[in-house]
């Protein structure tokens, strides 16, 4: 039974007794009856005042409890002139103001944190209490190529490509560095935070590709320049000596003249090969900044098809092109990108060898060029080394082709990947989007 109900029952009972006493006094003495009636009226007035005095604070407390329950920290009470009640009102108002300020501060901090996460250049994957993906910030979406896709509630193992394998290996407090497709290098950190008393995890991803490529480029440019200088000086002097030696050919005995001429020609040819060898390396170093202008991609691909056709027919390789009907113009250095695409098609042709297929697909959304082949594929142990400067799987290869492709695409700001899928196809994807793309 509530306190209010008890009080009313008590007041009714007491005044009922007084009414009964007044009835008996009416029988005996009318003056006493009138006095009793006045006493009853005075008691009723006092009871009503006591009721208001006792239960008004309770009403305030109840209203305050409802405000707190509804998380409404904007409601405050006005003092009523009673010292005890005003003290209660003052305490309540201070408490509500403190709660309001703390909630505003918490909301502002949460809003700031959300803004920082969204604007962060580092990729952030926030996990829920069960270790599933709760949210992915824009930087992580770009790294994982997840734009426009929803991965909320998915396991890390469900992420595409090699991201699933790499991110599941990240341990708390142990930075983990890995390389994707031989070109993009990332460092991942896993850490915990407390949310509503329970532990949750997040993964932060930083891309190190640009810094590593810059350091690599500075290192091999310095080495190649030094080598070119020494080799060119040597070959120049040797060529001069060989030219002088050729002058004495008629003076050699006819019996030894053929051997002499042959040995001299071998030396000249080897010297020329060495010069060409170093020139190939120097071409990578001397690659100029791209001179960009609008280029129709379909026309460029058709020209490459005609250029490659004799070699494709000789090897019995079928080249299939899937191009949009409407012309696509991209800002690029036509000569450089033509060289890069030619190298990619030659690599695909060498992977197929003969009696195979190469597919070239240009799609508009997202703007992407994919060159696929059903050749031998890329071995697992080779994939991390792809695009490493001057790395080659061929016995006589110099590793210049992929290095030049990398430099050209990076200078254009085009993201790219090379990987062999489970369907037996090797795909070279180039995302033809940059700040100046059309």
From TrEMBL:
It is an enzyme of class 2 (transferase). SUPFAM superfamilies: ATPase domain of HSP90 chaperone/DNA topoisomerase II/histidine kinase, PYP-like sensor domain (PAS domain). Its main location: membrane. Its EC number is 2.7.13.3. GO terms for molecular function: ATP binding; protein histidine kinase activity. PROSITE patterns: HAMP (PS50885), HIS_KIN (PS50109). The chain crosses the membrane at residues 7-26, 32-54. One of its GO terms (biological process) is phosphorelay signal transduction system. It is found in: Membrane. Pfam families: HAMP, HATPase_c, PAS_8. InterPro entries: HAMP_dom, HATPase_C_sf, HATPase_dom, His_kinase_dom, PAS, PAS-like_dom_sf, Sig_transdc_His_kin-like_C. GO terms for cellular component: membrane. Residues 226-436 form the Histidine kinase domain. Keywords: ATP-binding, Kinase, Membrane, Nucleotide-binding, Phosphoprotein, Transferase, Transmembrane, Transmembrane helix, Two-component regulatory system. Residues 52-104 form the HAMP domain. It comes from the Bacteria. Gene3D superfamilies: 6.10.340.10, Histidine kinase-like ATPase, C-terminal domain, PAS domain. It catalyses: ATP + protein L-histidine = ADP + protein N-phospho-L-histidine. This is histidine kinase. It comes from Pontibacter ramchanderi.
């Amino acid at each position: 039974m509530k306190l209010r109900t008890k009080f009313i029952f008590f007041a009714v009972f007491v005044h009922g007794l007084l009414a009964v006493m007044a009835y008996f006094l009416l029988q005996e003495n009318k003056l006493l009856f009138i006095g009793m009636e006045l006493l009853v009226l005075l008691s009723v007035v006092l009871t009503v005042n006591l009721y208001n005095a006792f239960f008004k604070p309770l009403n305030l407390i109840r209203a305050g409890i409802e405000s707190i329950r509804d998380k409404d920290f904007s409601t405050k009470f006005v003092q009523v002139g009673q010292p005890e009640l005003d003290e209660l009102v003052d305490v309540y108002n201070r408490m509500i103001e403190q709660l309001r300020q703390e909630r505003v501060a918490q909301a502002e901090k949460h809003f700031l944190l959300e803004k920082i996460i969204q604007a962060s250049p580092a990729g952030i994957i926030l996990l829920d209490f069960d270790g599933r993906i709760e949210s992915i910030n824009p930087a992580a979406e770009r790294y994982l190529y997840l734009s426009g896709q929803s991965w909320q509630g998915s396991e890390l193992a469900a992420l595409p490509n090699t991201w699933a394998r790499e991110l599941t290996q990240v341990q708390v407090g142990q930075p983990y560095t890995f390389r994707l497709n031989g070109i993009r290098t990332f460092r991942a950190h896993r850490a915990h935070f407390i949310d509503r008393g329970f532990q949750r995890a997040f993964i932060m991803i930083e891309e190190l590709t640009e810094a590593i490529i810059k350091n690599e480029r500075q290192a091999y440019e310095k080495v190649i320049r030094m080598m070119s200088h020494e080799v060119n000086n040597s070959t120049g002097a040797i060529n001069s000596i060989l030219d002088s030696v050729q002058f004495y050919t008629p003076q050699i005995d006819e019996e030894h003249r053929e051997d002499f001429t042959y040995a001299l020609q071998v030396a000249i040819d080897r010297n020329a090969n060495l010069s060409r060898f170093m020139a190939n390396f120097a071409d990578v170093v001397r690659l100029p900044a791209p001179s960009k202008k609008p280029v129709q991609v379909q026309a460029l691909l058709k020209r490459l098809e005609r250029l490659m056709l004799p070699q494709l027919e000789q090897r019995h390789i079928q080249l299939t092109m899937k191009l949009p009907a409407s012309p696509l113009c991209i800002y690029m250095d036509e000569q450089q990108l033509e060289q890069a695409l030619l190298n990619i098609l030659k690599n695909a042709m060498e992977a197929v060898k003969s009696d195979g297929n190469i597919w070239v697909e240009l799609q508009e959304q997202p703007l992407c060029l994919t060159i696929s082949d059903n050749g031998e594929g890329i071995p697992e142990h080779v994939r991390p080394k792809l695009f490493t400067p001057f790395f080659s799987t061929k016995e006589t290869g110099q590793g210049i082709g992929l290095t030049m492709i990398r430099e050209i695409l990076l200078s254009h700001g085009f993201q790219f990947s090379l990987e062999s899928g489970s369907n037996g196809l090797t795909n070279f994807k180039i995302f033809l989007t940059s700040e100046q793309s059309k």
